[in-house]
Specification:
Oligomer: single chain
Order of helices and strands: EHEHEHEHEHEEEEHEEHEEEEEEHHHE
Number of strands: 18
Number of helices: 10
CATH superfamily of the largest domain: PPM-type phosphatase domain
Strand order of the largest sheet: 6-7-18-17-14-15
Radius of gyration: 39 Å
Strand content: 15-25%
CATH architecture of the largest domain: 4-Layer Sandwich
Largest sheet: 6 strands, antiparallel
Shape: rod-shaped
CATH class of the largest domain: Alpha Beta
Structural class: alpha+beta
CATH topology of the largest domain: Phosphatase 2c, domain 1
Amino acid sequence: MQSVLIVDDSRLQRKILAASLKRWGYEVWEADSGEAALEICTKSQPDLILSDWMMPGMDGLEFCRAFRALPSTNYAYFILLTSKSDKSAVAQGLDAGADDFLNKPFVADELRARITAGERIVLMQKQLTDQNRMIADTLAELQGLYQSLDNDLQEAKKLQQSLVREREKEFHSGHLALMLRSSGHVGGDLVGFFQVNERHLGLFALDVSGHGISSALMTARLAGYLSAAAPSQNVALRLCDDGTYVLRPPGEVVEDLNSLILDEMETEHYFTMILADVSLDTGQVRLAQAGHPHPVVQRKDGSVEHTGTGGLPVGLIPNATFEDFVLELDPGDRLLLMSDGVVECPDPNENLLDEEGVTRMLQDLKDVTGTELLEAIQWRLSDYAEGGDFPDDVSIVSFEFKGAMTG
């Protein structure tokens, strides 16, 4: 049952109105002044208000303004009872917050029609308020879920970054630096290394298709297959009779990974990869390339070479073969394995950096070494994108060859 507040200093007028409203099924409240009506509304708000305009003390307009100023989540429909009919009076009433007018003396049928119209509006307003409250509650719940998910993703990012345990390492004949930067919380890139023995160093860079959590889970599993901490679990290593390990031919290792992905993992993901066996003795590098961007050699004089066999990504074609190829590093040369997040970094007009852009960038940075080089590359990519977010993960392995080992 909807409630109607009658505000009129005339007891007779209130009695006439109340009789009609009760007969029509409304709960009726009465007040003999604007002040009394305002006190009622501060305690409990009616659904509709019928207020006389002309009253001693606080008149109908003043009461309407004061009522509209009260804090409330529900809307009450306000009808002014008046003998005024000129346009300026109507404008005054609307400006004060009134919704409708009823001229005195009024007819019962017209009163009921105005009340019914107001009732419909109040009902729609309540429905809208309920829907808004439901939306607000849902948004609050979603915000809580988002915050929880964001916290989990932040932890996942820390865990993924921990897969690259060492970002920089010095060897007798070379210096290694690695960078891993996800475009989101977590990504599908991974870089790493494992030292086979004093004379050989294994390097890898891979990029799992897609982005986000599923790609990150894939990189975590692949990290286990190429673990430096557990040589017995590393598919790239073979145990010798004397208890030492040697690096298997890179192409053969990639073929095994291809079989593992297709035969043992229920996933739609595939990945690109470069696996390299670096001779710390001679600077010779034996590599297998599986759809990853070409490895880059920057010579001591600053010149840049992009080379490789290309190859298929891992996890697409059963029984795919991957061939080894060899690069020779001279003292002062460096090898870089970069993900497509570098080569395909777009500017605001969607022009990709490409291999020529990488060449120019490395030539500009030929005297920068180690982690400073990787940081400088990241800054150059940000400048090329003009400060925009990188659409893809960025990962780099840099190995600088100093010269043959001695002793």
